[in-house]
Design goal:
The complex is a heterodimer. By secondary structure, chain A is mainly α. Chain A is built from 14 helices and no strands. By secondary structure, chain B is mostly helical. Chain B folds into two domains: 77 residues; 139 residues, Delta-Endotoxin, domain 1, CATH 1.20.190.50. Chain B is 66% helix and 0% strand. Chain B contains ten helices and no strands. Chain B starts with 6 loop residues before the first helix and ends in a 12-residue tail after the last helix. Classes of the chains: A mainly alpha, B mainly alpha. Chains A and B meet through helix 1, helix 3 and helix 4 of A and helix 9 and helix 10 of B.
Chain lengths: 236, 286
């Protein structure tokens, strides 16, 4: 019976569209999209359909709603957020996909936490500041209690992408501008993010276990402090 | 619904010849032709549009680019000329898509071989043999028909997608920013007569009207092809394309058109269910 009922909800929207009950169809499809965990593509299509039904049913319905050229208004922001998360998954670089043997056509729905791990992982061989920025952007969709740890993870992994021993300490800013860490910060800054909010305090980073060997290095410490000071000046 | 070309239209079309005479005026010629084609398209005069389009020499864009290159040394066109060229390509993409759809429609509906009539039971041996032969022949024709159909379907879909997915902003969306345009007059550039002069007042309006007519139309043609050729899953995924924020195609739809679109998707989905798939085309795992 459960199977039957489940099938029923998964089909109710067809009937709702047919009977022009676009408001209900919107809700049903939305719910189905949220429950979908098997196929990303299916989740996406459910969401798209829901959005289109929402457009037909909602907004701009004042009086002459029949004028076909009045542009329909999108009032639902959370829907666009979901769409955005899907986009982040669709944009996963090829090496990451193959490392996890994910097929872009049939891949399952990944959680935002998984996505953050993947974008910053070693498997993402050609990762650049844009990948790390995506990981930071994804923090917005992660359950609140996980945000702190994940944010730290992103920065730590960004630091570990570079070797720090040979950087020129006489020209700290010049040297830093080559590192993925500061490229990412710069990108976030130019894109208008609140950098202070995104950053993890330098002390916390230096105390981090993964960076323990680097933190022994005085050059590294010096560069990090110099960099943070520079950012504080820029932002302040 | 396609409107006929009138005598008056022909006069207008032929007038473009004068502009095409001097290669130095090619940007202007293209700009005027675009404007004329826009008004044709708005009144759904596809024939007139095509007649005018075929007058424009195919090397025009190269000619324009090399003229600018000769003058400024860079192969980058100034924003307004850039948009003239872009619009020309948009119209070409659209006409190509229309042509391919007509080809497809013709082939699918008119050229399908008809099956031979079965002989009435109890008919003679010779009739039986004749039927078997006819059936053999029919099978062969059917196979050829199907093969051609696959090819034509592919081309038609590609070209229709080209309209929907027109790069850098979309079909008939100007690429240069408005404020760039406004800065131009005070720049005091005296580059002379070949620069397309005053901004066209109705242009923005025309473009958005055209988008709202033809984007739903192209979508529905594509939907027809995909549905008829049993590409149900792909047909459903049109929803993704239309709903996406990246392309913002849903904005070109009115409520009625969107309703029709959803109705059709719903039909497609039912076909999938009949074919032992779930409503979105994944095969049912039992």
């Amino acid at each position: 019976l459960a199977r039957f009922l489940q099938d029923y909800t998964s089909l109710a929207w067809l009937h709702q569209i047919q009977t022009r009950d676009f408001t209900s169809a919107n809700t049903t499809l939305r719910q189905l999209a949220q429950e979908e965990s098997i196929y990303l593509s299916r989740k996406k299509t459910l969401l798209s359909l829901s959005k289109l039904c929402g457009l037909v049913s909602g907004g701009g319905g004042s009086g002459g709603g029949e004028t076909s050229n009045s542009s329909l208004v999108m009032e639902d922001d959370t829907l666009n957020l979901e769409e955005e998360i899907i986009m982040y998954q669709e944009q996963l670089p090829e090496p990451v996909l193959s490392a996890h043997s994910l097929d872009p056509v049939t891949m399952r729905v990944l959680s935002t936490t998984e996505l953050i791990y993947m974008y910053t992982s070693k498997e993402n061989i050609y990762a650049n500041e844009f990948d790390f920025k995506k990981a930071l952007d994804l923090l917005a969709f992660v359950p609140e209690e996980e945000v702190g740890a994940l944010r730290q993870l992103v920065w730590v992994r960004a630091i570990l992408r570079n070797t720090w021993e040979h950087l020129d300490t006489d020209n700290p800013l010049q040297a830093l501008s080559e590192t993925l860490l500061f490229k990412t910060i710069e990108l976030a800054f130019t894109q208008g993010s609140d950098v202070q909010d995104l950053l993890v305090p330098v002390e916390d980073l230096l105390e981090c276990e993964e960076l323990s060997s680097l933190s022994q290095d005085t050059n590294f410490k010096f560069l990090m402090h110099a960099g943070y000071e520079h950012i504080a000046k820029l932002v302040g | 619904v396609v409107a006929e070309t009138t005598t008056e239209d022909r006069v207008k079309i032929n007038a473009v010849d004068w502009l095409l005479y001097d290669p130095q005026q090619r940007v202007e010629a293209l700009r005027q032709s675009n404007a004329l084609m826009r008004t044709f398209l708005i009144s759904r005069k596809i024939g007139a549009t095509r007649a005018l389009f075929s007058k424009i020499p195919t090397d025009s864009v190269n000619l324009i680019i090399s003229q600018y290159k000769g003058e400024t040394g860079s192969s980058e066109l100034p924003p307004r000329a850039e948009n003239v060229v872009r619009e020309y390509f948009c119209i070409r993409t659209f006409l190509d898509a229309q042509d391919s759809f007509t080809d497809w429609f013709d082939h699918y509906h008119q050229k399908r071989p008809s099956a031979p009539k079965k002989p009435t039971p109890g008919s003679g041996f010779s009739q039986q043999v004749a039927f078997e032969q006819a059936e053999q022949q029919y099978k062969g024709e059917m196979e050829r028909w199907r093969h051609t159909l696959d090819l034509i379907t592919k081309t038609a879909c590609d070209r229709l997608y080209n309209v929907l997915l027109f790069p850098e902003g979309g079909w008939l969306v100007d690429s240069a920013l408005e404020d760039q345009d406004q800065e131009e007059p005070c720049g005091g550039e005296e580059s002379g007569e070949d620069r397309p002069d005053s901004p066209e007042p109705n242009r923005g309006h025309h473009l958005s009207v055209l988008r709202s007519i033809y984007i739903p139309q192209v979508t529905s043609l594509l939907q027809n092809i995909l549905h008829c050729t049993e590409n149900y899953k792909e047909s459903l995924q049109l929803a993704d394309l239309i709903a996406s924020e990246q392309h913002q195609l849903y904005k070109a739809f009115g409520r009625g058109e969107l309703e029709r679109f959803l109705m059709k998707l719903q039909d497609t989905s039912r076909e999938l269910l009949d074919n032992n798939c779930d409503a979105l085309g994944a095969s049912v795992r039992d």
